[in-house]
Every structure is written in C-alpha cells, then in structure tokens.
Amino acid sequence: MSTQTAGQKFRAAISANTPLQIVGTINAYTAMMAERTGHQALYLSGAGVANASFGLPDLGMTSLNDVCEDIRRITAATSLPLLVDADTGWGGAFNIARTVKEMTRAGAAGFHIEDQVAQKRCGHRPNKEIVSLDEMVDRVKASVDARTDESFFIMARTDALAQQGLDAAIERALACEAAGADAIFAEAVYTLEQYQAFTKALKVPVLANITEFGQTPLFNKTELGNVGVAMVLYPLSAFRAMNKAALNVYQSILANGDQKAVVDSMQTRAELYDFLNYHSFEQKLDQLFSSKQK
Ligand SMILES: C[C@](O)(C(=O)O)[C@H](CC(=O)O)C(=O)O
Ligand SMILES: [Mg+2]
Q1: Quick one: which residues bind substrate (predicted)?
Q2: How far away, in angstroms, is 198 Cα from ligand 2 center?
C-alpha cells in the first residue's frame, strides 16, 4: 500500500509529466477505466456532478455534500489522485475552510476555487461575473489556512480574462500565487500566446482547461507544454462521448425494436468484468463458501 497522500501523489504526477494530462471521470467506474488506461491523475467536474448526478445545469446549484459523495465514490475505486472542482467554495471564509477539510476527508488530492460570483456560470459561457481581486485573494487565503493536510493542492482559478482582459487576469493570478495558491487555472483562454503570458509571469504551475465546444481551441499537449503549461484538463470529454453513445442506444432500441444495430458500440460483459476485477471477487466467494456447499 502506498504511504503517499493523495496530494503528494498529485504533486509527484505534476513533477513527472510536462504537461500532466488530467481526465474527467464522472463516476467510479470510468475512473477505474482511466486508471487502467494509464492516466496518472483524475478530475471531478462541477458541471459533471450537476449534469450527471443531478440532471442540473452548471450554475452553482449543487452543494459541498453533493460533490463530496462523488469524491468518496471515485477515490474508493481508484488509487489515482483526484482534482476536484470546488466552484466558488460555497460561501465565505468558514464555508471555504469546510470545503477544504471535507474534500480532504473524502479523499480529494486538491481542488480549484474560482473568482466568479456565487451565482456562477460555466467558464465558457457569456456574461460571467467575477468578485473583486481582494475577495478572490481572501478565498485563496481561507483555503490555504484551512489545510489539515499540507499536501492538499490548492489551485486558484481565474475567470477574469473574458471580462477584464489578459493583464487583469494575470494580475489576479499573481495575487493568488502570492496568497499561497499552489497553481493557477487560467479559464477560457483563447490562444497559446495568452497561456505563455500566464506561465511567464507565474512561478507556480498553470493549468489549461481544454474543454470541448468552448472558448479554447483543442490545443495538443505538446503545444501547451511548449508554452510552459504544466497541466492539461479534459473535464468532460468522456462524459460527452458517453452521452452521445447512450442517446444513440436509446434511439436505436425505439426505432428498431431491438439493440442489434448498436451492440458493436457497447463494452462487452467480459470487458466490464475485467475492469471491475469481477472474477477475483467470484473466486473469493468460491474460496470462502465452497466448504459449506459440500
Ligand atoms: C471545468 C468546468 O468548470 C467543469 O465544471 O468541468 C467547466 C467545463 C465546461 O463547462 O466545459 C468550465 O470550464 O466552466
Ligand atoms: Mg466547473
């Protein structure tokens, strides 16, 4: 068993990869697949929790507990470090402190906290509003101060670029760095040059959010690595693909009266059981209870 904390594993993964790819895993099972595939770090998306677990839009409607439940499920099923979307932290300094402590207890390696107002929106949608620089710095300070595990990774996300431009966004990022943030999440960046401006200005690692159908082009990890980006996030990529596959299955069953046309698009029972280590559980059952059956 590893004696490393989740936060230590996450920090080691950042050091070992330039850049580190971090994939969104909407539930425990997809997290197991990502781990088996060879990924080294996982992400729990706030939009993902809202959309997938609750059928809600990403507008700050889910609670700390809602997210912690999904953290516990994922961290119980894998040994990879999990970065978690803490949105705006669910309130003032004491609420943010609870967010740090509860997410640590749930097994998260770290979180990102953003500078949007509580009535937040997806970072790639228009009309976002942000809090003042001072209020954001207070959010970061409250996070750093609340750490019960010094390795818990505190990432400050700034959504300022859209509303205030590059210089203001970098000024915020620098203020968050000075307040103790371990990394900066530069949200909804348009160009590689802008990423470079962030990475040049900052000492701490910078994350690029490469989410589909948003403001940021789908830059390759090599391009991002070349401009100094340390982490590349794919928050909802697998989720979007799963959704399209599921929709296709539902439509096909209705249209055709059976599922034959879509069976080829399905993961087989054997594959499912392999990822779940199903057979080792069955063997254990046989071992434990075979004497009684005779
Ligand atoms: C990263 C993000 O915060 C998320 O919740 O996954 C979203 C992703 C998205 O909506 O595509 C965001 O960028 O705001
Ligand atoms: Mg989010």
Answers
A1: 45-47, 122-123, 157, 187, 209-211, 240, 269
A2: 20
Does ipTM top 0.90?
yes
What would the CATH number be for the domain defined by 6-236?
3.20.20.60
Put simply, whether the predicted model's pTM sits higher than 0.90 gets the answer yes
Domain ranges of the chain: 6-236, 243-293
Number of helical H runs and strand E runs in the chain: 14, 8
Ligand 1 pocket check for 162: Cβ under 6 Å: no
Helices (H), ranges, the chain: 6-16, 28-37, 46-48, 54, 64-77, 93-106, 133-146, 160-164, 166-178, 192-201, 221-226, 237-256, 269-276, 278-293
Q: Digits of tens for pLDDT over the chain (294 positions)?
A: 568 999 999 999 999 999 999 999 999 999 999 999 999 999 999 999 999 999 999 999 999 999 999 999 999 999 999 999 999 999 999 999 999 999 999 999 999 999 999 989 999 999 999 999 999 999 999 999 999 999 999 999 999 999 999 999 999 999 999 999 999 999 999 999 999 999 999 999 999 999 999 999 999 999 999 999 999 999 999 999 999 999 999 999 999 999 999 999 999 999 999 999 999 998 999 999 876 555
